[in-house]
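Morning, I've got a small favour to ask if you have a moment. I owe you a coffee for this, so here goes:
>
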Amino acid sequence: MMAQKLKHSSILRTLCITSRNYSEYKSIYERDEAGRQPRKVHGKEYPEWRRPWSQRDGEWTSKLSIFVEKSPSMNVLNAMQKLPNLTFQDLKEWWAEMRVIQEIQNQKYLPERVIALGANLAALHFFVYRQSAVRLKDKKEWLVGDVVTLKLPDTYRDGYFVEAVDCSNFHHNGIRYEGLQNLNGLNYLKWLSLRNNKYVDVWCIDRIAGQNGETLEFLNLMGCKLCAGCIYALARMSALKFLVINDPGDNIELQAALSMLEEERPDLLISIQVDTESDVDNKL
């Protein structure tokens, strides 16, 4: 009887592992191409009388029905109001805003990706495929590549423990606040470089301190938006041993915060550098 239970549990475990395939999850673009799917409640299709009138069979709709089915953004309404006098500069600004929205969406933390791959392998997918470099625990080589050249497992595999992440070449001008959530759950992460990521500010550093402050030992923040609040967030990182930042220059408030950090954390080595290439990243 016990042998049958063990056999049954092993079969269920195998089915669970093989079913957690990240490739089964569709992106928002694939779902949009598939079109609207019938809505169901408790396994039954949504009643006709409860649908919006624009979705009912036999009702006449026009292209303006988009404003009924979903609320248009303020940018769209503003552009329609200025339609006779719409300039190329207006279109250029609108397109720039759309690119920012798309990039934020692209960097968002996906729970289904973590469920399918695990926190470490999901982070490996996220960072490597966005022109970053990742080093695994007990490994010397850095993983760098793309979807074509670097074939990573699309299901959970044991043994992938992320120890270092280099975001110096992160695509589209750097990682954002939303993208840093993909560092969550990396219990072996000790080394992180955010060099030249212009979107990293006090909110980003506060997120890193909350997620990885107990394990992170090296942090490079050169080229980031530093302020006194950033230094207060860094003080919460109990495991931090080596910090690389830009020269604060004439910023008295930042200088005072750094002095307080050095006094509170005498074991923390702070390297203040100018915006020139350095080999400090290889010291750890």
Q: What stands out?
A: The first helix runs from residue 2 to 19.
